[in-house]
Design a protein that fits this description.
alpha+beta; binds tetrahydrodeoxyuridine; 150 residues
């Protein structure tokens, strides 16, 4: 469990990242700050597109940036919105964060808003019953039994 002061500092970084969100369609600006095991903080914001289905959430831009930098071990993520109470991560982002949550570990989550509200939780509290690599591997059919598309 991360101490409150560190998590609060992460919340401020998420609020700063939120100001860089590109959300001309939803007008719903989101910032994320991901604390990695090595102490690095990687920020993300939502990036929308005229083709709505291509919009990407703040949490996932942060995870993708961290992985691209060689960082795969995360301790905490702060997520900033203007919602009251502060908004929770969507299901897709929970699953993406779950990919990087060790089997016996967890990721601390701080939800913040620009009015100063703070809600502390964890990925496993928000997302019980994670579908993970172990479940996938234990249910995979041999390659020889699966048909290629062509
Ligand atoms: N959004 C996020 O960035 N994170 C979430 O967890 C929920 C939704 C973004 C996607 C879209 O740009 C906007 O918020 C409205 O859904």
């Amino acid at each position: 469990m991360l101490d409150d002061a560190t998590l609060d500092a992460l919340g401020l970084q998420a609020l700063a990242a939120r100001r860089r969100a590109y959300a001309p369609y939803s007008h719903f600006l989101v910032g994320a700050a991901l604390l990695c095991d090595d102490g690095a903080v990687i920020e993300g914001c939502n990036v929308e597109n005229a083709s709505y289905g291509l919009c990407i959430c703040a949490e996932r831009t942060a995870v993708a940036a961290a992985v691209a930098q060689g960082r795969r071990h995360f301790r905490a993520v702060a997520i900033a919105t203007a919602s009251t109470p502060p908004a929770t991560p969507c299901g897709m982002c929970r699953q993406v964060l779950a990919e990087f949550t060790p089997p016996n570990g967890d990721i601390d989550i701080l939800l913040v808003n620009d009015a100063g509200a703070r809600v502390r939780t964890t990925l496993r509290a928000l997302f019980p019953g994670i579908f993970d690599m172990a479940q996938l591997q234990s249910g995979q059919s041999p390659a020889s039994t699966t048909e290629p598309a062509r």
